[in-house]
Amino acid sequence: SNQTNLTNNPAADSGPAWSPDGSKIAFASERDGNSEIYVMDADGSNQTNLTNNPATDSSPAWSPDGSRIAFISERDGNGEIYVMDADGSNPTNLTNNPTWDWDPVWSPDGSKIAFASFHEGHSEIFVMDADGSNRTNLTNNQVDDQEFSWSPDGSKIIFVSWLDGELEIFVIDADGSHLTNLVNNPTWDWQPSWSP
């Protein structure tokens, strides 16, 4: 009950993300003819286009302190991880490479961003500092790795991989060490989620 349409326009709106303090929601919208990052108050008021350019922008992710938003942008010809201030100012390309990068996920302390990158024909999980420096390929294998998230203390990353021939759930230290298959069974396992 009490379902409320917050955006209520004929265009597609997707990827909603709560700000850490719960006062705002960032989302992608195609109401301007292409996908842009918008932000609105939690009640749906004050909807504002933050990106406002002709390229596709999507997948907003708030920094833990609510001051910045990471997102995917195609403004350089392929998907890159960008970050901007929460008001849309200072958009910066963090990845800046010829492959596709997507799914930015902030570490709990806001110092790092994990993301997926299409590398040598498959998706790998990378981690970089929040300014784009010190990029590291954590998984570095020949299969697709996906559905990743940080542990609450930021020390580990859980993800799904075909590494052992089946879709399985793995955990790895945030520096890429101590890779462990948590389930190791012959059926598919996916969509892992940390307890708080």
What do these coordinates show?
This protein has strands at residues 13-18, 24-29, 36-41, 48-49, 57-62, 68-73, 80-85, 92-93, 101-106, 112-119, 122-129, 136-137, 145-150, 156-161, 168-173, 180-181. The model has no long low-confidence stretch (mean pLDDT 95). Helix content is 0%, strand content 43%. The protein contains no helices and 16 strands. A 4-stranded antiparallel beta sheet has the order 1-2-3-4, with no helix packed on it. Strands 5-6-7-8 form a 4-stranded antiparallel beta sheet, with no helix packed on it. Strands 9-10-11-12 form a 4-stranded antiparallel beta sheet, with no helix packed on it. It has 196 residues and is an all-beta fold.
Protein topology:
Blueprint: E1 13-18, E2 24-29, E3 36-41, E4 48-49, E5 57-62, E6 68-73, E7 80-85, E8 92-93, E9 101-106, E10 112-119, E11 122-129, E12 136-137, E13 145-150, E14 156-161, E15 168-173, E16 180-181
Approximate helicity band = under 10%
Overall morphology? globular
**Total DSSP E strands:** 16
Low-confidence stretches: none
Q: Roughly what is the average pLDDT, rounded to an integer?
A: 95
Assign the structural class, choosing from mainly alpha, mainly beta, alpha/beta, alpha+beta, or little secondary structure.
Answer: mainly beta
- Could you tell me the strand content as a percent range? 35-45%
Order of helices and strands: EEEEEEEEEEEEEEEE
The helix tally amounts to: 0
Task: Give me the side-by-side strand order of the main sheet.
Answer: 1-2-3-4
- End-to-end separation: 26 Å
* Main sheet: strands, sense, barrel: 4 strands, antiparallel
For the CA atoms, what is the radius of gyration? 17 Å
